[in-house]
Every structure is written in structure tokens, then in C-alpha cells.
């Protein structure tokens, strides 16, 4: 497995809130909050390309590398079943998601540009749900991870995880596929995982059982992440952040009928307040409510226009 540039401190841009950007700025309906069905037609694929292109420009302006996440956060079997996708269908779209980003990389003229196979939790990303057995998680996530590996993804990134058992299972599946893997937990306003586990404990637990290449935190505002960053060397394991634009809680966001975009400059300043506590932070992008404007502000580049 090739070394990941962010592991040696290379600054890396990553993208923003794909699903909320598509829904609220492009008027695209995403049943089950799933973007992967867009890969099934020319219009959808063109829309995805146009979504990713501003981040290439941001990385160039920032003189940074870039990591793009495939639009496959929901492209696993439980979610696929709800949308009428068979196992063969899901293997195809997960493979195709990697290929479309590889094609963008070939044209981008940017190095490094990593293609990350993105996956989400089996359950809801905002609620803890039942405890997850690591062996069950390995079996569940293996088909998606194997499709990423077969297509030549550079790594796997698991976003918005709510418990340690699923994280451990995902790491084991990625290791079997010989892919680097990043684990990203989400936290509530108090800095704890939705099941109440302190972030420091979650990272230590996963590291003890199946250490990923690095950890991230996503789908929470920086002000919600701050209480989690208690003293300790464990903070050096966090290499990436993908924050929400909004300061609302997960429950409030679930109930919201309009997009809370926050303020891109204020979000960038909130990130800056975390930097002194995260010595290895190298990968920076957005999550729900963010778009290329927010990520441009984080990297102090020219703001991008939302289509």
C-alpha cells in the first residue's frame, strides 16, 4: 500500500457537503440521501463532475493536494435494497464511482490527487442505534470495499460513524482488501459520539483492535468538536476534519426544512481555533451545508460560485 501524503503532513483539500449541495443548490432529489444513483445516467454523471471541479481549482490555488470522495456514502446493501439496487448493481456503481474520479484526475493536472472510496454507516449517521459487532460490520462492508479496491481506489474513508464496533469492522475489511483506511466519527454538541462515548475513548478503542491509517471527525460544527479535544497524545491521530456549516445539533438538522449554510468565513475561523490542538491536521473540507465557498474560505482561496 502506498503511503498517503497527508500522513507526512502534505496539506490536502477535500470536498464539501455533496448531498446537501446537490439537493439545495442544484434541485436534485436524492431519495434516502443517496447520491450514487446519479452515476446511472449521463446527466447525473455530468452533474457530479461539475460538483467536483471547483475543488480542483481550490487545491491549485492553495498549492495543496486534493482528495476526492466517491459519491457512495449510501452505496451499501441495506440502502441499496431500499432503492432497488442488487448486489451486482452496487458493485457496478461503486466501481464506476472510482473510475469517474480517476478520469477527473487524469485531466486535472494536480499532484497529488487521491481517489477515496467513501462509505457510510449501515444505520443512520446521526443516531447511535444498536451496538455493532465488528465481525458483522466486516461482512457487511466488505463488498463495497472490495469494489473500491478492484477499481483502483487509493484508500477507503468511512464517514459519519457513530460507534467503535462498526469502525473496527470497516478497518478489518479494508486491510483484507489491502487498502489504506481512514475512520471518521461524528460527535454531538458535547464532543461525544452519539452513543455517549468520548472521542478520545473511541479512538483508543479502535486503535487497540484494528488501527486505521488515521482518524477524522465529520458532520459536526468545529464548536461541537472542540469539547472533545481533551489533553493527550491521542489527538495526533486526527489528520482530517469535514465540518458542518451549521451550529445546529443533529436532531435540529434532521427537523430542519431549509438549508443552514452558516457563514463561510466564520466557519473557517472556527476551524482555525482547533488547529493548535490538532498537530497533524492536514486534510480539510466540509460536510452538510457546506459547498466550495466554505472550503475556499478554509484554504483562503478565491470563493467559488454555487451553480
Describe the structure.
GO terms for molecular function: metal ion binding; methyltransferase activity. Zn(2+) binds at residues 219, 287-288. Keywords: Metal-binding, Methyltransferase, Transferase, Zinc. It comes from Virgisporangium aurantiacum. With 307 residues, the chain is α/β, with parallel strands linked by helices. The protein has a single domain (9-298), classed as TIM Barrel (Alpha-Beta Barrel). It contains eleven helices and eight strands. The protein has helices at residues 18-25, 42-62, 77-82, 87-108, 134-151, 164-176, 199-210, 222-225, 250-255, 264-272, 292-298; strands at 12-14, 65-69, 113-119, 155-161, 181-185, 214-218, 238-243, 283-286.
